[in-house]
């Protein structure tokens, strides 16, 4: 059951002029949105996530803006960087001089080869209103095409920055295609300042035997709302490894969906570090559509104050997908009596020769571990901070980009009040 208020919000967001490119695609998205309501807690999959803050705010189209990103540059990616400010390509902040020959990394508005690929990875009935809203109104985005057997040695950096004095909406769009045998590492970051709504959509096609490593960092402003969709298909023998790190936004939701062909592999890890009344929701879907696929998922949440974390991870093993190996774990740490976690790992198995496990744990800091650290000379606060940092920072150790790893360690140190323990970064 839904209410009438959100549909007016969708109409307001669609009142902005329709960009000229991909008109047929946009018209189809608008048609699907016609008369549609936003989800409410009475709808399946939204029981713990209330979008009421959206209905209380009027979001205008994002204005032209500039941003100083010098403090956010990663030295490993000086010549492999694209920046978008308020949804628009920022050429003066971008630099792609170090791209290997043949690799295409350019704005969507300059990429004619994207016209037949956008919006093709999901059936129309499976698309959320925010995915359709992005399709209807995105202004620009990034296209990444990696040709057959090209192994890029340098990672790419994709940075989306929003600057808002008044509430506005932005719709980042990314299309990634790796042909057979290609290999790529990508860092996708979202940040900003002020009250805004951002609805990013990322579409990924990993070819046969190709490998994509994808770091996703969400550190939007504390007043922002971040509603993201990711859709990926992994061909035979391909690999997709993703890590989503959620630090910002007052309300955020991640919806990654990955379809695995025969012998394909996927990793969908996540870390949410929450406080000050934040809500972070992850609804993931891993579809083993063919035999001998492998997937691993570790979702970790550290929740303080009156914050709330939601995790719903679904693994589906299709009929005939024998030899599937799927592992899923949800780890959650509550730091206050008012923090809350709702976690629901799910297995849907239609094959009989599989190895599938899932589990969830929600708890507080271990008193025995605190006592041990106190016996070694730490006071109570320092012991709690060190244990919290260790719980949150475990996933960071696997980030291959050294400068990003150090920056995120410092962020976690600051958020867990562990900086007084010394420079652990």
Keywords for this entry:
10-stranded mixed beta sheet, alpha/beta, globular, 2 domains
What is the compact description of this entry?
With 425 residues, the protein is α/β, with parallel strands linked by helices.
- As a whole number of angstroms, the C-alpha radius of gyration is 21 Å
Distance between the termini: 48 Å
Taken from the alpha-carbon principal axes, the silhouette is globular
**SS field, number of helical segments:** 7
Count of folded domains: 2
> What is the share of helical residues?
10-25%
Mean pLDDT, all residues: 90
Structural class: alpha/beta
Low-confidence stretches: 1-6
SSE string: HHHEEEEHEEEEEEEEEEEEEEEEEEHHH
How many strands? 22
| Major sheet summary line | 12 strands, mixed
* Share of residues in strands: 35-45%
Structure description:
There is one protein chain. The protein is an alpha/beta fold. It folds into 2 domains: 5-261, no CATH class; 367-425, no CATH class. The protein is 17% helix and 38% strand. The protein contains 7 helices and 22 strands. Strands 1, 4, 5, 7, 8, 10, 11, 13, 15, 17, 19 and 21 form a 12-stranded mixed sheet that branches. A 10-stranded mixed sheet has the order 3-2-6-9-12-14-16-18-20-22, with helices on one face. Helix 2 packs antiparallel against helix 4.
Please give the structural blueprint:
Blueprint: H1 5-14, H2 23-33, H3 52-55, E1 60-61, E2 81-85, E3 88-89, E4 104-107, H4 129-137, E5 141-146, E6 156-163, E7 168-170, E8 173-178, E9 183-193, E10 196-198, E11 201-206, E12 211-219, E13 225-234, E14 239-246, E15 251-260, E16 265-274, E17 279-288, E18 294-303, E19 308-317, E20 325-334, E21 340-349, E22 355-363, H5 367-375, H6 380-393, H7 402-415
Parallel strand pairs: 1-7, 2-6, 5-8, 6-9, 7-10, 8-11, 9-12, 10-13, 11-13, 12-14, 13-15, 14-16, 15-17, 16-18, 17-19, 18-20, 19-21, 20-22
Antiparallel strand pairs: 2-3, 4-5
Helix pairs in contact: 2-4, 5-6
